TrEMBL record:
Pfam families: SIMPL. InterPro entries: 26kDa_periplasmic_antigen (IPR052022), SIMPL/DUF541 (IPR007497), UCP029033 (IPR016907). It comes from the Bacteria. This is SIMPL domain-containing protein. Gene3D superfamilies: Protein of unknown function (DUF541), domain 1 (3.30.110.170), Protein of unknown function (DUF541), domain 2 (3.30.70.2970). GO terms for biological process: DNA damage response.
Length: 237
């Protein structure tokens, strides 16, 4: 055979073999197959801590009289808390005095010069007692004590501080749920699952047990703790 024809034949054979290998791939270089699944676990819990700031204000043009009324209000609030078993739950008291005449802004057109605000901070593990007291604040209104809201808070905040205690069981349940989903996928696709390739715990969320529109989780004593685990499992033939 002519040397040029031989070289062309070898080249054509090489291109043909190269195309076959590209089309069929090398088994040693094939990417491992895997499946990504999510596992959800939830547990209903009850708040074990209540934090409740009670803020009230008096105003007037005689500072001594305003302070006297604030002291009267404070006595009424403390007596109210004692009635509900929360006398020892007051952990902080703050007082704020505003003199409108001393302020650099404004046009000095005000009815009352002095504004005195006081806040009693209640912190208690007896969430039932706090909830009962919060439902009875109308008694304070009847005594002339007008409670104010603190920002967006309109009452006690109920907190759950036991995440670390339930976290291992929650994660275990989430992983079991993810593995069950991976096993079902493998069964349906004619494969079997291998070891975990990658795992992501995800965030542990504390949600209101009853998803009332507009309600915050801190406003409900009963809550749901949720975790979603994302895992990649290898697939075997």
């Amino acid at each position: 055979m002519h040397p040029r024809l031989l070289a062309a034949s070898v080249l054509a054979l090489g291109l043909a073999l190269g195309g076959w290998f590209i089309g069929h791939g090398f088994a040693s270089r094939s990417a491992p197959r895997s499946v990504t699944v999510k596992g959800l676990a939830e547990q209903n819990v009850r708040a074990n801590l209540a934090v409740w700031p009670l803020r009230y204000t008096e105003a007037g043009n005689d500072l001594a009289q305003v302070q006297a009324r604030i002291q009267r209000d404070t006595a009424s609030v403390r007596a109210f808390l004692a009635l509900h078993g929360l006398a020892q739950a007051v952990v902080q008291r703050s007082l704020q005095v505003t003199d409108r005449a001393a302020q650099q802004w404004g046009n000095a057109q005000y009815k009352e010069r002095y504004i005195v605000s006081a806040t009693l901070l209640v912190r208690s593990q007896d969430v039932n007692a706090v909830a009962s007291a919060a439902q009875a604040t109308g008694q304070l209104v009847g005594q002339g004590v007008a409670l104010e809201s603190q920002g967006l808070a309109t009452g006690p905040s109920y907190l759950f501080t036991g995440i670390n205690a339930i976290k291992p069981a929650l994660l275990s349940a989430a992983i079991k749920a993810a593995r069950a989903a991976a096993a079902q996928f493998a069964h349906d696709s004619g494969s079997r699952i291998g070891p975990i390739v990658r795992a992501n715990q995800g965030l542990i969320e504390i949600l209101p047990r009853d998803p009332v529109p507009g309600a915050r989780e801190q406003q409900q004593i009963d809550k749901t703790v949720r975790v979603v685990a994302t895992l990649d499992y290898a697939l075997r033939d």
